[in-house]
Design brief:
- This protein is an alpha+beta fold.
- Among the domains are: 61 residues, Orthogonal Bundle (Helix Hairpins), CATH 1.10.287; 78 residues; 114 residues, Immunoglobulin-like (Sandwich).
- The chain has 8 helices and 18 strands.
- Strands 9, 11, 12, 14, 15, 16 and 18 form a 7-stranded antiparallel beta sheet that branches.
- A hairpin with a 5-residue loop joins strand 11 and strand 12.
Length: 370
């Protein structure tokens, strides 16, 4: 059976009978990892292949044609046991009761392994009970409780430990266990956890056991499984965190945040080919409204406090609710002057330079600040 001839369902990691909403969610989930602008995990070839699968499966007509192209077994392909026209007479056999020698060898082998495992487990428990208690050692307080998938709020933010970070913790089912070497036992014992995307400094790799030694503070080092770390500095760790915790994609004209109320009204349109988020900041630097616009989209927002504001906007891909910014390719700009709210309406972004002073670039952190 070839029910997925080109592997489109496998690329999105969905079932053949997945609903359109599930396919849409799977695409955005994988795009947060594979998009070429995402540091470390970005993969242009994988993203293009995944996008090709999404383009087919998200279109009902193209998906139906793709499903029809799948090869299914026909009744002619099913082997049929053919019997002679005359049944052969059965030879008379003498019945006897079952004996132990009739039992298959695999059953005896399984029983023997079970007995050996029971004996080994009992000896291990007795040995562990006889060990002396561990001496008190510096520890790391657990700081990353596992967040269930249905939680509304994003996972705890990444940490930065001592030293110059050159690796960060990747998500793999929860926090990464931090170990220390216990001289008395001659073994590694767990002492704490680090949340995903924490940036740390790797000191050396212990190839014999697959652990990486990291700096915890100025006096204590620990060890993490090498499979939980990937190269990257603080900026790379934050970008990966923002993409991973982007949350649901905003809809056009969605108000992401607002402060205060009043009779003011703002009409804004996006003239770019990428998503845009627009903010109005008052003289204190506080954003009174933040609105998301799809490419070519527009919005009318009412109930705003009257006053003078300076607009700013950001263009990019994959808006992250956890970081209040775009996770990939973000560029933020601020209008040159303040203006009363009626004078700002209608507002076009990017602005029409023939009617206004050119905007100035601002840092991502300045735009993300509410």
């Amino acid at each position: 059976m070839y029910l997925d001839p080109k592997g489109y369902y496998a690329r999105l990691e969905v079932d053949r009978h997945a609903a359109p909403a599930a396919i849409h969610a799977a695409y955005h989930r994988k795009a947060r990892v594979l998009h070429p602008d995402i540091p470390v995990t970005g993969d242009a070839a994988a993203f293009v292949a995944m996008k090709e699968a999404y383009d087919v499966l998200s279109d009902p007509l193209r998906r139906a044609a793709y499903d029809r192209s799948a090869v299914r077994p026909s009744i002619e392909d099913t082997p049929v046991e053919r019997h002679p026209t005359r049944p052969r007479p059965m030879a008379a056999t003498r019945t006897r009761g079952p004996v132990l020698s009739d039992r298959p060898f695999a059953l005896w082998a399984a029983l023997a392994l079970g007995v050996l495992a029971l004996i080994a487990g009992t000896e291990a428990v007795l040995h562990l009970r006889s060990l002396p208690p561990l001496p008190t050692q510096p520890t790391i307080t657990a700081n990353a409780p596992i967040v269930p998938p249905e939680a509304v709020k994003p996972a705890p933010g990444p940490l930065r430990l001592a030293g110059t970070p050159n690796v960060y913790v990747i998500p793999a089912g929860g926090p990464a266990v931090v170990w220390r070497h216990d001289e008395q036992r001659g073994a590694y014992v767990p002492i704490g956890q680090l949340p995903p995307f924490s940036a740390v400094q790797a000191v050396r790799v212990l190839r014999e056991n697959g652990l990486v030694e990291i700096r915890l503070n100025d006096t204590v080092n620990g060890f993490i499984d090498a499979s939980r770390l990937t190269p990257g500095n603080v900026a790379a760790a934050r970008a990966a965190f923002c993409a991973y915790n982007a949350g649901p994609e905003p809809t056009n004209a969605e108000v992401l945040a607002r402060r205060g109320s009043g009779p003011g009204r703002l009409t804004v349109e996006n003239r770019s080919a990428q998503p845009v988020v627009v903010k109005l900041r008052d003289s204190n630097g506080e954003a009174v409204v933040t609105v998301f616009l799809e490419p070519g989209g527009s919005a009318a927002v009412g109930g705003l406090p009257a006053g003078a504001y300076r607009p700013e906007y950001a263009i990019g891909e994959l808006w992250s609710r956890a970081c209040n910014g775009f996770a990939a390719g973000m560029r933020a700009q601020r209008f040159a002057d303040f203006a009363d709210l009626p004078a700002l309406t209608p507002l076009s972004v990017p602005p029409d330079l023939s009617a206004r002073e050119p905007p100035v670039d601002i840092s991502d952190q300045a735009f993300e600040h509410e």
